[in-house]
């Protein structure tokens, strides 16, 4: 979509100017309309991605608040997201990126040996190591293979978005992003 739009603009603008210079106003207007369609489609696509990212982040924040309430009451973070239901949150929301599981689900990673929603791993505190280990975990999760890593409690979702895949580190109380 992006390259097509860029090609339409870069290739179309000189053609518009040439048609305008020749006095062929109807051709110039037609070409402007075609460029406008490509630009509008690109902007709608980008707008959708941004809106979906905002929605997923908002829903993740809801889970984070519920997990922090659970931690305040029980003295530890939950081992599984479903431990938050119904006392702290009505239900675990989807990310709303897609209707295809597991891409529409939040993933909650916990220390090894604990039951989770299919993932049991732990993170180090080094951001560089975290990025490498998160990538290993994601690949392991998508291929169904186990990964041996040192992750603590991390919340993330399955869709790669512009700029990288976001995750929330509960122990450091911060958001991070890693590229795939």
What would a concise description of this structure say?
With 180 residues, the protein is of the alpha+beta class. Helices cover 49% and strands 10% of the residues.
Give structural attributes:
single chain, 180 residues, alpha+beta, four-stranded antiparallel β-sheet, 3 helices
Q: Name the structural class.
A: alpha+beta
**What's the total count of β strands?**
4
| Percent of residues in beta strands | 5-15%
Work out the helicity level. 40-55%
Distance between the termini: 20 Å
List SSEs in N-to-C order: HHEHEEE
* Backbone shape: elongated
The overall pLDDT, averaged over residues, is 77
- Point out poorly predicted stretches: 115-128, 146-150
Strand order across the largest sheet:
1-2-3-4
> C-alpha Rg, in Å?
23 Å
- How would you characterize the largest beta sheet? 4 strands, antiparallel
Number of helices: 3
Task: Walk me through this protein's architecture.
With 180 residues, the chain is an alpha+beta fold. The chain has 3 helices and 4 strands. Strands 1-2-3-4 form a 4-stranded antiparallel beta sheet, sandwiched between helices. A hairpin with a 4-residue loop joins strand 3 and strand 4. Helix 1 packs antiparallel against helix 2. The longest helix has 50 residues. The radius of gyration is 23 Å and the shape is elongated. About 11% of the residues have low confidence.
Topology readout:
Layout: H1 2-22, H2 25-74, E1 106-109, H3 127-143, E2 154-157, E3 165-169, E4 174-178
Antiparallel strand pairs: 1-2, 2-3, 3-4
Helix pairs in contact: 1-2
């Amino acid at each position: 979509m992006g390259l097509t739009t860029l090609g339409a603009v870069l290739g179309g603008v000189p053609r518009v100017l040439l048609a305008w210079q020749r006095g062929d106003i109807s051709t110039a207007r037609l070409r402007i309309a075609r460029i406008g369609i490509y630009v509008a489609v690109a902007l709608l696509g980008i707008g959708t991605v941004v809106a979906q990212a905002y929605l997923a982040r908002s829903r993740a924040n809801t889970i984070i608040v519920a997990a922090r309430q659970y931690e305040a009451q029980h003295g530890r973070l939950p081992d599984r997201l479903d431990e938050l239901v119904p006392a702290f949150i009505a239900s675990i929301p989807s990310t709303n990126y897609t209707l295809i599981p597991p891409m529409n689900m939040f993933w909650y990673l916990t220390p090894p040996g604990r039951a989770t929603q299919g993932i049991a791993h732990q993170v180090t505190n080094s951001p560089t190591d975290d990025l490498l280990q998160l990538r290993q975990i994601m690949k392991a999760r998508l291929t169904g293979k186990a990964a041996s890593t040192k992750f603590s409690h991390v919340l993330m979702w399955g869709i790669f978005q512009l700029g990288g895949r976001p995750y929330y580190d509960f122990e450091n109380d911060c958001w991070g992003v890693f590229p795939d």
